[in-house]
Here is the input.
Amino acid sequence: MQPDITARVLDPLDLQLLALLEMDGRMSHARLARRVGRSRSAIQERIERLERMGHIAGYTIRRGNRTTDVHAYLLVCASGPGQDALAAALEAFPEVRVCDAVSGETDLILQVQAPDVAAIDRVRAAIAALPGVSRTRTALVMQTRFHRAQDAG
Here is the structure.
């Protein structure tokens, strides 16, 4: 299949769909649609367009447990009082594992996990484009020195 010659900038929904498919290439159009709050037919058209544009070159499997995921912290500065709406929008990103509201100049700190740095960057770009986000900063986790499990107590 030839790539679509009409190059188009990927919008946040495109980036979100690509991230979801990278995590689970077998995810159905109906499930994708539910995850992003759109109709199945709209998602099917988007996926077909992404394939024509060459952003999706094929579907494959990865064997075994993936233990090489990249972890990052995304610091988000919000514009306006709509942090609840912003936090709700962030829930649609499967790569965002934790969303903490914090004090100081930064409003939200997100713990992000993705298969590679490029996927982290796609998530960062999609989040930066959300309404209510004025600025983001990213800190990649280079090495985990220790991790304490929560007490069952």
